[in-house]
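Sample pair:
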Amino acid sequence: MTGTLMAGPLHGAHNATLPLKRSFFTMNTSEQDRWSRVKGRLRSSVGEDVYTSWFARMDLEGVQDESVRLSVPTRFLKSWIQAHYAERVLSCWQAEMPEVHRIDLTVRSAVRPVAQTKEAPAPVETRRVPAPELRSTATAPVSANHDALGGSPLDPRLTFASFVVGRSNTLAHAAARQVAEGRRGDPVMFNPLYIHAGVGLGKTHLLQAVTWAGNSGNERKVLYLTAEKFMYGFVAALKTQTALAFKEALRGIDVLVIDDLQFLQGKSTQAEFCHTLNALIDAGRQVVIAADRPPSDLESLDDRVRSRLAGGLVVEMGSLGEELRLGILKSRVAAARTHHATFDAPEEVLNYLARTITHNGRDLEGAINRLLAHSKLNNQPVTLEMAEREVRDLVRPQEPKRIKIEDIQRIVARQYNVSRSDLLSSRRTANVVRPRQVAMYLAKTLTLRSLPEIGRRFGGRDHTTVLHAVRKIESLVSKDTALSEEVESLKRQLQE
């Protein structure tokens, strides 16, 4: 019997196989006819859109005794079906074959030969194409846009249609839409497009939305990779002596989307990323990148990479305001209703959640999931009292604002009527030296940056220069009341 991973009535078989009592893959016309009827039941049960998204690429491998073996092309698809539709698939089979009590779901190889069998025509085209040419659609999940390049999984929920736009993400959304709607041969407006934000503020959502939309037209090759996946692909190519093919394949992409760039490590990997970045940009191909900080703060990256990244459009996605948080909650409730029509969250509950859960969008989604689970499992309506009880651990104390050196330089320059470039210059006039020293002092006291890093961010100065400035201002604020008040005012402006 094939080794299995237990997952309720729907199991995932390992690739390794053990001897069978008789062939598991004995297939005949009657079984294929039965499979066609099962798919018809499944389509009627879940609806055309859900069927297209999750079941159009599921194939029958064989039937034996009480077991049915099915396959799908990606691990992501297998995991999703196991988690959400296990009982549904089993019940559709049992309607045709009551003796079936087990479904084994496997991931088929992209190069495995497929037996040609006659099958009732389905409204969805399921013809397989070679992995490098595989296109994703706006509704079907894929393990990668281009499996041969080791692309990262895409979540079919993360599209532009489900992205909630607010004041803090308007520019990032508009720039991402501009990229996604471009066509092959169009001049590239923002290159690279670099989006940075804290955890749970929508970076990954936007990048995957760009990938879905870019690939849906079947015109451009759009590849979505996490930095970790890029590193893995490059190292694997080196080990198998296919690095040249890996590089050529990457540079044949029309739009390269890289997520979580802050995790890119290793000199050789960073060098290869830099070469790929330069090659794509110089060839007029689009690059979209997301990270949790601006390029100048990615201290682990080579200076050449940081410089090239900063040369594009750098957009920050700010924290979620209460109005935007409320919009996200309403969007998540509407999405939950597509599968649970009776689910509802009163306005006062959503207002409470938007007011008290301020950390990030993932906490908001988690809150809706908790209310949905509690309501369904206990057969109780959602109330304010229930919400207060169920999400109390998500209500976190307000964290102090993370102050950036760029903000310090901007506010100090405005306070003393000089330019930011003056603070970074080598000018030694009194009207520039004092503001520069104050800015360095604030950078040391309000951020976690080291003295060498602060010096680098102030025009490449030595760390001893920064230390001198910090000690100078410390000494002066203890004696000069006016300067002390100025510094305190600057601190309040930075922390607002």
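The chain has 20 helices and ten strands.
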